[in-house]
Design a protein that fits this description.
By secondary structure, the chain is of the alpha/beta class. The strands form two sheets. It has a six-stranded mixed beta sheet with strand order 1-8-7-4-5-6. Strand 2 and strand 3 form a beta hairpin.
Length: 162
């Protein structure tokens, strides 16, 4: 599988690679493991709050087209709070308000746990799109604005796992 993104070629050559389930926080501060890890394929939006609009059009397109919807895929967001300039309490409150409207799951990463445990490299000021298969392998990663080629590669990956 090829890799598209802004990460270094060293990381690119490592995909797919095994990752472990980790504990993050829900928006009320309770520790929890990633949902459905090892049971479903996971589509994760790992977002620095300063970069939350970086791929806004893509996320709207994804939601409206239902292109990633499948009983085999579970998608959710993770806020990269360690790199946020905004106070964590404010970011959590804004996320809680938004999730009340759309019902999405959003978790909080206060200490760069995903970055460290999954060897993601620098995620500051980035919208990072991740896809982990049921076997616990990171099979897709893209940092920053998604090009048309990156979108096509992402859709090719998720189509394999529907």
């Amino acid at each position: 599988m090829t890799f598209v993104g802004t990460a270094t070629m060293t990381i690119a050559q490592e995909l797919p690679r095994k990752v472990n389930n980790v504990n993050l926080l829900d928006l009320s501060g309770t520790s929890m493991k990633l949902p459905y890890f090892g049971e479903k394929n996971l589509m994760i939006f790992y977002v620095d709050p300063q970069a939350h609009k970086q791929n806004h059009e893509f996320t709207v397109e994804l939601e409206e087209s239902h292109r990633a919807e499948s009983p085999n895929i579970y998608g959710f967001g993770v806020l990269n709070l360690k790199d946020a300039w905004y106070p964590n309490s404010m970011v959590r409150a804004m996320a809680r308000k938004r999730t009340e409207k759309n019902g999405a799951l959003v978790l909080a990463d206060q200490n760069r746990i995903l970055r460290k445990e999954w060897n993601l490299g620098d995620c500051n000021d980035q919208f990072v799109l991740l896809f982990i298969n049921k076997e616990g392998e990171l099979v897709f990663m893209h940092k920053g604005i998604l090009s048309e080629n990156a979108k096509a590669e992402f859709f090719a990956v998720i189509d394999q796992y529907k």
